């Protein structure tokens, strides 16, 4: 795992409105700019916003509109990301911004991902303030989640650098829809990732998510095989959409052949939401079928989520079969690990484990991170020549606030 502490500190300049010069773009001959951050490859005229709604052509330059602003902060159990083999039982400071580069009809966070009111919804926080908050609350990691951090990669990377400098790890929760140009730097900043594999069917990806399957597979292959990032995969099982036996079999076979049997796979229950309200919640039986199929395919660590199922949420030793980590939803109970080994037969268990698990439990604790006093903006919010460096010495106030 990439636990190396880096002294690289955040470098992006931004203004208090949350505008920062974006990266991964090139000017075009016709006056547009081409965004090269994700495979959608938006070509933007001056004033245009990308599909994700948070990257804009400001006078011929790419600007990220949500730098230093969040839709809210919450301390979660790491199991909620979900990550079952990464510092079990510990607290993770989670936050997201607004917008998304996918258009999933079943989006379970659509109020955030489809938000068009970035400024009104957002809480300001510098990367350093977030790292300090994580330390103050005893979090072992910070998660870039709720909406896809790929579209706010500059903010996520800078926050991860600030976290790494103080020994806090970083977790990306992402659909993996990122271009080869950006993915190396993005995942270099991360220590763990949960990557959504929404289906193993290009037609589903195109029709239901407005994206494509192959770039996601490329990301999974890259992160698992060419980086030290700890990876777990999630598949949201949607009734009569992506739950066909053949498709699940193909997906599990691909995972096994491409990234191996040690990558944990989570099959989670769908609930009707956003533009997919025409079908029921995923049944427990469907999750069990997916679980059984994956185990028979040879995957060693398979879990079900968004449902109570003690056995299928717990970790068993693939060698001796004994129960090692007992989970009920996000609550740990028995813990029979000897650091990263089975406490009975000493078989190595893939993941990032310490001698003791965390004791955060299943709580969710919304918090507020107050930003430092900032230099006032000029009357106009136009970006031209006005990007300024905000003081990095945050004075931070944490208070409880109502649920996010
Ligand atoms: S990151 Fe946003 S602007 Fe860039 S290509 Fe993707 S959707 Fe378009």
TrEMBL record:
Record domain Radical SAM core: where: 85-300
Cofactor: [4Fe-4S] cluster
CDD domains for the chain: Radical_SAM
Gene3D superfamilies found in the cross-reference section: Aldolase class I (3.20.20.70)
Keyword tags: 4Fe-4S, Iron, Iron-sulfur, Lyase, Metal-binding, Oxidoreductase, Pyruvate, S-adenosyl-L-methionine
Enzyme class name: oxidoreductase
MF (Gene Ontology): 4 iron, 4 sulfur cluster binding; [formate-C-acetyltransferase]-activating enzyme activity; lyase activity; metal ion binding
UniProt keyword annotation of Metal-binding present: yes
Its EC number(s): 1.97.1.4
Protein name (record): Pyruvate formate-lyase 1-activating enzyme
Originating organism: Novipirellula aureliae
Taxonomic classification: Bacteria, Pseudomonadati, Planctomycetota, Planctomycetia, Pirellulales
Gene name in the database record: pflA
């Amino acid at each position: 795992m990439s636990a190396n502490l880096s002294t690289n500190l955040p470098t992006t300049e931004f203004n208090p409105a949350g505008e920062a010069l974006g990266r991964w773009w090139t000017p075009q001959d016709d006056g547009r700019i081409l965004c090269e951050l994700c495979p959608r490859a938006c070509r933007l005229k001056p004033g245009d916003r990308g599909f994700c709604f948070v990257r804009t052509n400001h006078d011929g330059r790419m600007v990220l509109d949500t730098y230093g602003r969040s839709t809210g902060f919450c301390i979660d159990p790491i199991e909620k990301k979900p990550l079952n083999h990464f510092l079990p039982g510990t607290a993770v400071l989670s936050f997201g911004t607004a917008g998304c580069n996918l258009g999933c009809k079943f989006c379970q966070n659509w109020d955030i991902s489809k938000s068009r009111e970035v400024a009104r919804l957002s809480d300001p926080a510098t990367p350093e303030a977030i790292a300090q908050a994580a330390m103050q609350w005893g979090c072992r990691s910070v998660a870039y989640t709720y909406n896809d951090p790929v579209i706010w990669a500059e903010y996520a990377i800078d926050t991860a650098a600030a976290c790494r400098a103080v020994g806090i790890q970083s977790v990306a929760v992402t659909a993996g829809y990122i271009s080869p140009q950006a993915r190396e730097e993005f995942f270099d900043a991360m220590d763990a990732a949960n990557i959504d594999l929404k289906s193993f069917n290009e037609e589903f990806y195109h029709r239901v998510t407005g994206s494509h399957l192959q770039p996601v597979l490329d990301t999974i292959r890259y992160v698992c095989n060419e980086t030290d990032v700890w990876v777990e995969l999630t598949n949201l099982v949607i009734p009569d959409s992506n739950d066909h036996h053949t498709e699940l079999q193909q997906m599990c076979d691909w995972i096994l052949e491409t990234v191996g049997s040690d990558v944990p796979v989570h099959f989670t229950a769908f609930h009707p939401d956003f533009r997919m309200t025409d079908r029921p919640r995923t049944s427990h039986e469907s999750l069990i079928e997916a679980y059984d199929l994956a185990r028979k395919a040879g995957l060693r660590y398979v879990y079900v989520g968004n449902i109570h199922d003690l056995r299928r949420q717990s970790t068993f030793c693939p060698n001796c079969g004994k129960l090692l980590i007992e989970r009920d939803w996000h609550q740990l109970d028995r813990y029979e690990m000897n650091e990263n080994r089975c406490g009975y037969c000493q078989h190595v268990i893939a993941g990032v484990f310490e001698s003791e698990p965390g004791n955060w439990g299943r709580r969710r604790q919304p918090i507020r991170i107050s930003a430092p006093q900032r230099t006032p903006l000029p009357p106009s919010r136009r970006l031209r020549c006005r990007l300024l460096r905000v003081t990095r010495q945050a004075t931070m106030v944490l208070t409880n606030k109502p649920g996010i």
